[in-house]
Description:
Layout: H1 6-23, H2 31-104
Amino acid sequence: MDNRNTPPLEEKLQKASEQIDQHLDVEEPPLLYFETLVREEQQAWHQRLWKELMLLWAAALLMITGLALSFYFIPALFIIVQGAAAVVLLGYVWKEKREMVMVDK
């Protein structure tokens, strides 16, 4: 390339760049805008983190409560189930005995 053509080309590119800069808004926002944006994002992140932490704590509390209740109430539940099974079995025996008496007559 010829060195004589280079300066006018650079000059044209620089003028075109300046025109584009004037046409487009290339001003960068002030620092306060970015600081505010970071602060808002941090607050949103902290709120989301606290919500998730509370949800996990609630789930853990429910699980621990369920385990504690099952530890104390499983024997009672076992006794209730055994009592119900005994009542059902006695009812079945009574029904069968009554049918046997009717067959013998």
